């Protein structure tokens, strides 16, 4: 039986408070989806709001909701997805999500949140939290602690400046962290020590300002399924991140790399992309090419032409292809007439 389509007539109560201090109520327009295939039902609600059916998806969009207060959501029956989109949210208070069932997703995006305080997402039964496209610059250390259901956290398009190794304490199932388009400058030692130890990690930090990866950044994990750090300012990758560790899919496009450490080729790599690293050395490009041919490695190269005078060829590296063309000897014009200088 598809549990998403079974309607059980239990109360769903949503309390909508405008001012957390004065406990004032406001009206909100919400859209309710009964199941994954249903057409949304538009409702105007105010505190208290009682809806006597299971809900698959509750959507609040384009409203004015500066604060999400304690017990803003009191959900006791089935709800899978909860979204607040473009609704001017600035502050989320502790206890805002008083949710009994296990949510697949809490998504609060395109708002004006600048701080994620501790205890907001603690002890909530939710698998994915998406806080992208806000103004977040501060995430308190305990913000994502004590959440035994949490697996995925997305913090894209914010103003985050650092990765805190102490995030996710007692949240042992988090395996995917995405913080694309932020202001992160370094990946510190033991950066992911509290994340899932039983499955490969997926890490996305493209379009930041990362200049340094600490050699001990990944010490807590043996397998990284995806490390995506495109569009940063890396000039080198430390050898230690590849020792006794498999990074299966490494994406370092649009950095300032010149070479890869030799130990990378012993790390079980299956896919490598490093497009737009225009300063990459030809000797290292040739090494990558040989390894790729010998080990069936999927590679996307920067667009560079390397001269091989010993074999009298140019090796062309261009995205996912390489090929060779003969060196063109210099042209000598033997019949050129040089006019003598005229006397003055």
Name a few traits of the molecule:
mainly beta, signal, Leucine-rich repeat, LRR (right-handed beta-alpha superhelix), disordered N terminus, 4% helix, 344 residues, LRFN, LRR_5, LRR_dom_sf, 31% strand, Chaoptin-like Protein
Describe the structure.
The N terminus and C terminus are likely disordered. A 15-stranded mixed β-sheet has the order 3-2-5-8-11-13-15-16-18-20-21-22-23-24-25, covered by helices on one side. A four-stranded mixed β-sheet has the order 4-1-7-10, with no helix packed on it. The chain has one domain: Alpha-Beta Horseshoe (Leucine-rich repeat, LRR (right-handed beta-alpha superhelix)), CATH 3.80.10.10. The protein has 344 residues and is mainly β. It contains one helix and 25 strands. A hairpin with a 7-residue loop joins β2 and β3.
